[in-house]
Amino acid sequence: MRGSETLLRQLSRSRAAWLGLLIACLVPCQYLHAAGPKNGGSGKGLRITDLLPFLQQNPPQVVVPAGTQGTVVDPSHLEEPVRLERTLRNAMRDKSDNVHLTVTNGTAHVGTSVVKADEVVHGHLVVLKGNAEVHGKVEGNVIALDGDIVLSKGAQIVGDALSIGGNVDLNEGSITGAITTLEPSPELVIQAGSIPGLIARRSAGLLGLFFTMVVLGFAMVTFARPNLEIVSDTVSHSLGRSFTAGLLGEMLVLPSIGLIVVGLAITLIGTVLVPFALAVFSLLIIAALLSGILAVAYNMGETITRRRMARGIFVSPNAYRYVLTGLAGLGTVWLAWVVFGWVPVAGPLMLAVAMLSTWVVGTIGFGAALLSRGGVREHFAGRLLAPIMMTDEHLWATPRMGVPIVKRPPKEKS
Predict the structure, then answer these.
(1) Residue 156 pairs with which residues in a beta bridge?
(2) Is 390 exposed, middle or buried (0-12, 13-18, 19+ CB in 10 A)?
(3) Residue 23: its pLDDT value, please?
(4) How many helices (H) and strands (E) does the chain have?
(5) Which of 33, 105, 152, 400 has the smallest C-beta neighbourhood within 10 Å, fewest atoms?
C-alpha cells in the first residue's frame, strides 16, 4: 500500500513538472530575447523569433509620398505633438498598406523599422504602427506612432525623439535633443480607425487570449488535476490568506531576483549560472501565476455549476466544464470593455475595472499556489481533519465523514 501511494505521488509530481514545461513553451516567444536591446545588450543578440519564422512580424513597408495634394508632415517642428498625431492618424485612416504620406526631409515606414549598426540615416525618420529600433545613427528627429523608440549600446540620434503611444529606451545610446513621450488621444484613435474595426481587433485579441487560457486549463486538468484541485480548494478555504500571500509574493519578486544574482555572483561558477537561474525563476513565477488564475477559474466554474444543479438545472459536472465556465466568467469584464471601450468616459473606467479585477484574481491565485506549494501541500485546502475529529465521540456521532454533528431528536412517548 505504501509503495503504491509513493508511486502515485511521484507520478503526480512528474505530471506537474511536465505541465510547467508545457506552460513555459506556450509563453509568447516574441517577448523572449536572448540579448535584445531592451535587456541592455548590443542589439545583435539572437532572438527566438529569428529561429521561428512563423512568429516574425511583417517586414516594414516604406510609405509612398503623397505628393503636393496629399498629407505632408514636417518632423523638424515638434512643438505641437497633438497636432502632429492628428496629422499622422489622418494619413492612416485607410488601410495600413495603402498609406500615402510626405515627410519633409525624411522617410516614413509602416511597421517596426530597424536602423542597422553600420547604417547612417540622413534625415528624419517616422515610424507608424511599430517600433523604431536604432542600432546605428540617425541624423534627424525620430517619431514613433503607437510604438517604442529603442536604442542599442552606441546608437545615436542627432535630434529629438518623440514616441506617441510608446516609450523611449536609451539602453546606453545617446539622443542629443529632447525626449518626449505622449499618450495617444482616444478621440484621434477612434477617428483614425472605425469603431467596428476597433471592436473587431480587440475582440480578436480577447478571443486569442481566451483560447490560450482554455488550452492551458484543459492541459492542467489532464496532466495535473489533483494539483489544480488543491490550489482551487486553497482559494475556497483560505481566500484572505491567499490574497495576502499573493500580495507579499508580488512585492518580494524583485528582491528575490536581487538575492539570486548577488548570491550566485559571489563565485565564478555562480556567475555563469546567473542567466539560467533567472530564467528558471521567471518560469516558476509565470507557472505559479497561470496555475493560480486557472485554479480561481476552476473554483468559480465549480461554484456556478453546482448552484445551477441545486436549482434543478441538469448540468454535467466535470473539470473541463469548470475551467471553461470560470474563464468565461473572468472574460466577461474584458468583454464589456471590448464592446464599450470606445466611449470617452466609460471606456477608461471599464478598462480600469477590468485591470483591477484581473489583478485581484491573479493575486489570489498566485497566493494560493504559493501556500499550497503548487498543489502539493493540502494544509490550507481544508482537506485535513482536525485531531478532535478523530475522537470516539465524533466518530460515534458522525458515522460518515462530512456529516455535521447534530443532536439526536427526543424519543416520542408512546
Answers:
(1) 137, 174
(2) exposed
(3) 47
(4) 11, 16
(5) 400
Indicate the domain borders of the chain: 7-33+194-381, 57-192
Q: Which amino acid is at 284?
A: L
- CB 270 within 8 Å of CB 263: yes
Residue 408 banded pLDDT, cuts 50, 70, 90: low
Q: Residue 103: helix, strand or coil by DSSP?
A: strand
At residue 67, the pLDDT reads 56
Distance CA 166, CA 103 (A): 21
213-245 confidence digits (pLDDT tens): 999 999 999 999 999 999 999 999 999 999 999
Cα–Cα distances (Å) from 48 to 132, 275, 280, in that order, read 20, 16, 17
Q: In this structure, are residues 12 and 224 in contact, taking their beta carbons and an 8 Å threshold?
A: yes
Cα–Cα distance list, 176 to 63, 126, 131, 157, 309 (Å)? 26, 17, 20, 6, 68
Q: State CA 229 to chain mean position distance.
A: 23
- Which triple of cell numbers denotes residue 173? 545610446
- Of 103, 181, 102, 190, nearest in space to 149 by CA: 181
Q: Which residue has the higher pLDDT, 107 or 192?
A: 107
Q: How far apart (Å, rounded) are the C-alpha atoms in residues 241 and 50?
A: 43
For 330-343, give the DSSP string. HHHHHHHHHHHTTS
Cα angle value 336/307/375 (rounded, 5°) = 85
* Selection from 197, 218, 363 nearest residue 293 by Cα: 363
- Per residue in 345-372, pLDDT tens? 888 899 999 999 999 999 999 999 999 9
Query: Phi and psi at residue 38, in whole multiples of 5°?
Result: -75, -15
> Is residue 108 within 8 Å of residue 128, measured between CB atoms?
yes
Query: Alpha-carbon distance 130 to 127, whole Å?
Result: 6
Q: Containing H/E element for 192? A: helix 186-192
Please determine, for residue 190, whether its predicted confidence score (pLDDT) is greater than 80.
no
Burial of 333 (0-12, 13-18, 19+ CB in 10 A): middle
Flag the least confident range among 41-50, 117-126, 172-181.
41-50
- pLDDT at residue 271 tops 60: yes
Query: Would the pLDDT of 266 be above 80?
Result: yes
Model confidence at 11: pLDDT above 50: no
